Amino acid sequence: MSNIKIAITGVGNCVSSLIQGIHYYTDDKLESAVGLMHTEIGPYKPADIEVVAAFDIDKRKVGQDVNEAIFAKPNCTHVFCDNLPPSGVIVKMGKLLDGFAPHMENYRDNLTFVKSDAPEPTMDEVVRDIKESGAEILCNYLPVGSEEATRFYAECALEAEVAFVNNIPVFIASDPAWAKRFEEKNLPIIGDDIKAQLGATITHRTLTDLFNKRGVKLERTYQLNTGGNTDFLNMLSRKRLASKKISKTEAVQSVTASRMDEDSIHIGPSDHVPWQKDNKVCFLRMEGLLFGNVPMDLELRLSVEDSPNSAGVAIDAIRCAKLALDRGQGGILYAPAAYFCKHPPRQYTDDEAFHMMEYFILDKEKSEE
């Protein structure tokens, strides 16, 4: 089976984990594999994914082989598969636009953003690079708040006629105008904002759904997150957080018994703690009313390595996009979007989304409406 050829925008921690995972989950490890939701999706295994083009704007990555660039500063995620062979794919200069927060320039040696001196490409040049690479899918890994830059690359995907997997909270798949354009070109799109394998939002959703199913009235809840990677540093700029807060909040609101008052629900990144590096800590509190209006509360602390948590889902989303391409299916992939993303075009409970996903993989008839 031929490889699934992908292009990447943003060679950060999440891409580091993804590429490490592609090399880690070889055939000899699949039988006893830990950490995969699916060892195979259709005929495709994790190792069938191949990065054939990559774009970044940091001088420590631009011009480097992508398998070396994923270990360059300011990346700081856990290394579980090193000594990668050269890929032969050189990271090219991407489009800057709003792809970085100004406060990150010259911030601190191990976290600072260092803009490459290479000239920025035009859209025609990016489209040409994607086409010449043979990529079938463009995966967006830009920083949170990269509204203009994400739209630029979504446009490139349309022009290059490749599928688009949008891993960040800029609303493309969930924007009817953008979704229609991918549908008209019969190109698959999955988005928006990747939901971690077992992270703060999926845990919060699961508990909220449990409250609902057990007849417990959820009165108030918060989710506070801290981390030390560049994602959390980037989000110190509050104006870059608007879509992220919407995405995370709506992911939880969508499974409540009834919509909560805005003053009773708070979800969002809270602070950057440098020594945590790629470790993310979630503090979760839920207050509710049981039988007889008797109060109860729940507090939970969750600690995860942030980027492998994302890669475990992305590796499935990419394979689902490839299945759609093989089947000639374009437009929004509702089941993968609902299962893999915080802000899909249509929200379902995670149980519903799981069953929809399994039917999608098997290509069986089941309504996603």
Descriptive report:
The protein has 369 residues and is of the alpha/beta class. Helix content is 34%, strand content 19%. It has a 7-stranded parallel β-sheet with strand order 3-2-1-4-5-6-11, with helices on both faces. Strands 8-7-9-10 form a 4-stranded mixed β-sheet. The model has no long low-confidence stretch (mean pLDDT 94).
Strand order of the largest sheet: 3-2-1-4-5-6-11
> C-alpha Rg, in Å?
20 Å
Question: What's the rounded overall pLDDT mean?
Answer: 94
Q: Which structural class do you get from the secondary structure elements? A: alpha/beta
**Distance from first to last alpha carbon:** 32 Å
Give me the strand/helix succession.
EHHEHEHEHEHEHEHHEEEHEHH
Largest sheet: 7 strands, parallel
How many DSSP helices? 12
| Proportion of residues in helical segments | 25-40%
Poorly predicted residue ranges: none
Give the CA-based shape.
globular
Query: What oligomeric state best describes the polypeptide chains here?
Result: single chain
Number of strands: 11
Strand fraction: 15-25%
